[in-house]
Design a protein that fits this description.
Elements (H helix, E strand, L loop, with lengths): L2 H27 L3 H18 L5 H18 L3 H24 L15 H21 L5 H18 L5 H19 L3 H21 L2
Helix pairs in contact: 1-2, 1-8, 2-3, 2-8, 3-4, 4-5, 4-6, 5-6, 6-7, 7-8
Length: about 210
Amino acid sequence: MTNKKKIIIGLQVVATVYLLGNMLYSNLQAFDLLSTAMGLLGLFGNILLAHKKSSTFALNMSNNVLGGILSFQNGFFAEVGMNIIYFLTQAVQGIPYFKKHKDETGEVVTKSEFEPIKIITYIAFGTLAMGLVSKFFDGNMVVLDSIQNGIAIGAQLRQMNGNADGWLLWVLSNIINIIVWASVGNWILVASFAAYAIVAVSGYLNWSE
């Protein structure tokens, strides 16, 4: 095993131990099944995605359903729209890409090129669209919620097309999500997004080979 692989696996182990420990502590205070299930699905789905496994989609798409419900309950309506976008882009773009783009060993082919104009366009469009949705429904933290989701749209579209830089956008998106969910006191999801950020770093390292 190369040093790079050891670092990738080490980051994922740290994220898993951290999140499971936080969930155990939080649930001892007040059990939260929905947040716990969402956090675990997202963690293991992202780990599988970091390793280019098509089985990621079953976990991540289930996570999107729960995420939409939880976001609606907390008034983050842009985030509700984002979970719908996550689900659809995986079904329409991600799954076909993983099926069609494989090397001779059967591993999904990923790309390292950086395309700033496309990334900025995706983020700007996503921020505006989600901001209008959130404002229309009188959501909470409209500006920050919309910026986070604009970045997430860029991350999702890049990632579902096999681009490694999507992981870097996810790191930024997850950091903003930590702030958003801390504002409503959902510490399980705060820990979840912190763990996702760690896994995203490992995903970038693996996809950018």
